[in-house]
Amino acid sequence: MSSLRSCGWCGRERIKIHCRYNGTGYCGTCYARIFKRVQCPKCSRYARLPKNILGAICRQCLATRPCIRCGRSNKPVGLINKYGTVCASCAPYFKRKESCEVCGRQSQRLTRVARFNDHLKRCERCAIIDYGTCLQCRRYRKLIKHKERKLCALCFMGRIALCCDCGNQMPLARGIRCEDCYWLNLFSKRSLINRELMASEYYRDSFDQFAYWLCASVGAHKASITIAKYTAFFRQVETRWAAFPSHAALLMNFGVDNLRRYRKVVSWLVADLYIELDENAKKAVAEKQRIERILARVPRGSISHGLLQRFWQNQKARVERGEITLLTARLSLTPAVGFLRVGEFGQPSTQRLAKYLISVPGQRASITNFISYLNTKCGMSIELPEPNITQKARKGELEKQLMALAAKGTHGNDFHKWCEIALAYFHGLRLSQAKLESVCCAINIEDEGYFIEYKKERYFIPRLPSRS
User: Fold this and answer.
1) What is the β-pairing status of strands 35-39 and 46-50?
2) Which of 99, 155, 309, 359 sits a CA distance of 20 to 30 A from 260?
């Protein structure tokens, strides 16, 4: 790209650019030689156009072309380069990033602000660094520091006015309404607009009652911000039912997670006796949604997908017969998915089961139901490893981790990891990360190792070797 002070045609440096066309600068000599007064091929008006560019059009026609970035027309032109016309909104994106002379941040929107009287190029953040929310009128304006408080100019002078709605005194900078009346007026407008989205008069009246209840419950400020979210609930209900259905029907249609987003509407429905809460239905729908998410973890088309679906149908039949609860069925599915994931959702085997129980030994009892189903219904012969075999394998894994940490030595957060693995290996004590951090803050360090006190018991672990 040509330099700002070099002619794009003759290449001379440090000269005054007389004209720019499509992003290329021309000196006065080249302009007179190349630009001739001819008729514009687009608008038929006479203009000086470059004879070296075939089909060149005048500046007015260049400005009418759509922006090459956003595609909009009839916008103020901010830049015309060799690629085309750029509107004023998109022009900053075609500038090179430069460092702000105040904070050093890279920006494409540097500007000089006259009120600072320093002629420094500032980024957008530094250009409005003296702006903020006035602590008195709550308006975003240029602030003046006054007794450790930042106020706008009108509040700094202490001018007051009367609210046109309630008649109470307020800062003059507020305008015609105080803050409470402003939010109340905005809430009234938004509730009137949103009620018109309902087709039936029943839901319009219900929405008016809910809006009044919401404003009294959370205040006009929050109600005006959230009223549009609750309007979507009313519109969805109206498309399905002529009147508000039962709580169980809402749960089946929206689901527990989605209905939780409209908790205020449900509270209003219960308070105004439209519906009665059904906790049993809520728990049942919640369990079904959790089961659906668990089943979705296994990819379709794999061997494990068919096995898991048949196992779920078996558990579902037992739930319908009253042999087990839906919670028990879900708790059987969770370890089943974890076991199938170990084999990358392939054919289950005894070796893969042993590998799974080494990583999660606490799931031994929960996985028994799934293993029994595979052996009796699917003709497999998977054996549960003995508890001591699992424990030995688990201890072998811990030993490998200890050896790896010992070889690496002390580094970063390895001390907490060393304590966690050593307590599990030498004493069979498995602590969570939160408990481990509280215990490790009160250990006694000796020459040969560490003494850790936990529940009035002292546990010794060897010292972590220093990094050489």
Assistant:
1) antiparallel
2) 309
User: Which pLDDT score is estimated for 190?
Assistant: 94
- Number of Cβ within 10 Å of residue 39's Cβ equals 12
Map 290-339 to HEC letters.
HHHHHHCCCCCCCHHHHHHHHHHHHHHHHHHCCCCCHHHHHHHHHHHHHH
Share of the chain above pLDDT 70, in %: 92
pLDDT-based confidence at residue 2 (cuts at 50, 70, 90): very low
| Max CA separation in the chain (angstroms) | 99
Please report the pLDDT score of residue 409 as a whole number: 64
Q: How far apart are CA 129 and CA 122, in angstroms?
A: 10
Q: Which residues pair with 460 in a beta bridge?
A: 451
Does residue 223 contact residue 264 with C-beta atoms inside 8 Å? no
The encoded tokens of residue 294 equal 């668990």
Query: Distance between alpha carbon 437 and the CA centroid of its chain, in Å?
Result: 30
Q: Is the pLDDT of residue 1 over 50?
A: no
Provide the CA 256 distance to its chain's centre, in angstroms. 21
**Cut 0.90: pTM above it:** no
Alpha-helical regions (H) of 302-461? 303-320, 326-342, 350-359, 364-377, 387-408, 414-427, 433-440
Q: Which of 391, 384, 388 is nearest to 369 (CA)?
A: 384
**Cβ–Cβ < 8 Å for 224, 190:** yes
Cβ atoms within 10 Å of 99's Cβ, excluding its own: 13
Q: How far apart are CA 111 and CA 120, in angstroms?
A: 8
Instruction: Check: CB of residue 75 under 8 Å from CB of residue 67.
Output: yes
Domain boundaries of the chain, sorted by first residue = 19-63, 98-127, 131-177, 181-277, 287-385, 393-462
182 vs 433, residue with greater confidence: 182
